[in-house]
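Anyone opening a protein record will find just a pair of labelled lines. With that in mind, the following record should read easily:
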Amino acid sequence: MKSQIQTLITQAVTTLQQNGDLPQALNLNIQIERTRDKTHGDFACNIALMLSKQAKCKPRDLAEKIVAALPASEVVTKVDIAGPGFINFFINKGETRAVIGKIFENGKAFGHSTVGRGKRVQVEFVSANPTGPLHVGHGRGAAYGATVADLLAAAGFEVHREYYVNDAGRQMNILAASTWLRYLEGCGEAITFPLPRYNKHMVKRYVIPPRW
């Protein structure tokens, strides 16, 4: 819906430029926001305030020109000017519900695009450490990482998911040695532990108790 309003405003600005009411060289940055008060419409735009200096025109006067130049649209039922020059848009409620039909029609393909076609991206996430206790942050990281990767894939990107487990390197070597030595200790052997090492509470979940 925001993109449709942006298109309408862009067309209105282009019309004003063609009519000589706005300069040809404009730094156009259209920002559409949800209104906090529903009596002010569904969406609001501050484009008149943003362009007033470039147009050498009062914001509210410029807002009136922009509203007058807006093309007709089935999406917008009403346009108001509020305060110093905010443009408020009231949306056709039938249009907001039309997307439901598209969701059922497209099924799992709804919302997919080709924006990222031909582009590759790597998403690194989780980094769960086997040498320490898992916590809720690891679960949150897994959910966020997987979701971001899925969104990028739905947008057409070729996604490589890098799920870090930290299962290699010096830490794991120390854990493996500590686990083996703790196992031997559990079997009754007298073990002298080198440093660095992991204590019993860190390796007890990896040690298989002897059954003989």
Q: What stands out?
A: The two ends are 71 Å apart (CA to CA). Residues 204-212 have pLDDT under 50 and may be disordered.
